[in-house]
Amino acid sequence: MEPLKLHFDVSGSDFTCAGEASGNIKKALKEIGFSAALTRNVAIAVYEGEINMVIHGGGGQIDVEITPECISIVLADQGPGIPDIALAMQEGYSTAPENVRQLGFGAGMGLPNIKKYTDEMIIESEVGKGTTIRLKVFPQ
Amino acid sequence: MKIREIKNILDAELICGENFLDNEVFTACGSDMMSDVLAYVKEQAVLLSGLVNPQVVRTAEMMDMKCIVFVRGKHPDLDMIELAEERDIVLLGTRLEMFTSCGLLYKNGLKGGSGI
Ligand SMILES: Nc1ncnc2c1ncn2[C@@H]1O[C@H](COP(=O)(O)OP(=O)(O)OP(=O)(O)O)[C@@H](O)[C@H]1O
Ligand SMILES: [Mg+2]
Fold first, then answer.
1. ipTM
2. Residue B114 placed within a domain
3. Is residue B64 a part of any domain in this protein?
4. How many domains does chain B have?
5. Any idea what the CATH number is for the domain that residue B75 is in?
6. Nearest CA to ligand 1 atom 29
7. Residue A38, Cβ neighbours under 10 Å: how many?
8. Among A46, A132, B2, B15, which has the minimal tally of Cβ within 10 Å of its Cβ?
């Protein structure tokens, strides 16, 4: 079977629209017939990534490939990058400014939460160039 | 508990989702921090929040929540209401504060995430 491919451009300046891509991905997974639990887990992981892309990364692109065996998601931005990935992965570590906290984010839980809800998570980041997060979930 | 009962207990205004008032929910959580909701909440169907922005609706969407209660008299704007309507999420608004709202619902049988 040909994989189903989805592409989304995520605006870096429109906080209101953040989550639009994740919502569409969730809908697609549901329509294909993946379980509610798997669909929710993937949705939460992608949404955390999409929010990060908007509040830290200045926007970017999300590419998804879906087969019955593997859901693969690549979140790429051209933002400031992450200087210390191990530190960023720690629960509670956040550089989010006060205005982001007032919007309900910035607890430093997003990256650890992505890890929790996916089977594979690879972060590539270069300061000044951007960040790419590759995620895989194996439905079986 | 039916969502309708939540509305009555909190003397809440129905903002949208009238068709779903008879849906049953068993658990709830309360937070103004969406990061925490995404990280710690498990299967809760109701979110009580004093935060008003579209990401509250989106967070509920990702987590399959059925109902959002805005506390402290907070009111969502039209864009948020539309977002919730498209996702079949009930929006309620109460004048009560967070602690009181959660307490009343808990006293009436709604549980937290750990089933306690
Ligand atoms: N795409 C990105 N570009 C640049 N920095 C990032 C990116 N994603 C994460 N970071 C950095 O990693 C830190 C931790 O990210 P994480 O998602 O865990 O927490 P947060 O976004 O700060 O808060 P939360 O996700 O709980 O709302 C961020 O505060 C930020 O410094
Ligand atoms: Mg984050």
1. 0.96
2. no
3. yes
4. 1
5. 3.40.1390.20
6. A94
7. 16
8. B2
> For position A97, which CATH number holds?
3.30.565.10
Query: What domain range includes position B7?
Result: 3-107
Contacts of B86 (CB under 8 A, 6+ apart): none
Write the burial class of residue B13 (CB in 10 Å: 0-12 exposed, 13-18 middle, 19+ buried). Answer: middle
pLDDT digits (tens, 9 = 90+) for A86-102: 999 999 999 999 999 99
Q: Could you report the per-residue pLDDT of A15-56, keeping only the tens digit for each?
A: 999 999 999 999 999 999 999 999 999 999 999 999 999 999
Residue in chain B closest to A44 (alpha carbons) equals B62
Residue list, ligand 1 pocket, CB within 6 Å? A 48, 52-53, 56-57, 77, 79-82, 88, 93-96, 105-111, 131; B 35
Task: Supply A105's token pair.
Answer: 């984010």
- CB–CB of B35 and A105 under 8 A? yes
Containing structural domain, residue A69: 4-137
In whole angstroms, give the CA distance from residue A34 to residue B75. Answer: 35
Residues B39, A103: C-beta atoms closer than 8 Å? no
CA of B3 to the centre of ligand 2 (A): 31
If one counts the domains in chain A, the total is 1
Q: Among residues A31, A69, A99, A101, which one is catalytic?
A: A101
Could you tell me the sign of the dihedral formed by the alpha carbons of A120, A30, B38, A63, in that order?
positive
Note the pTM of the prediction, 2 decimals: 0.97
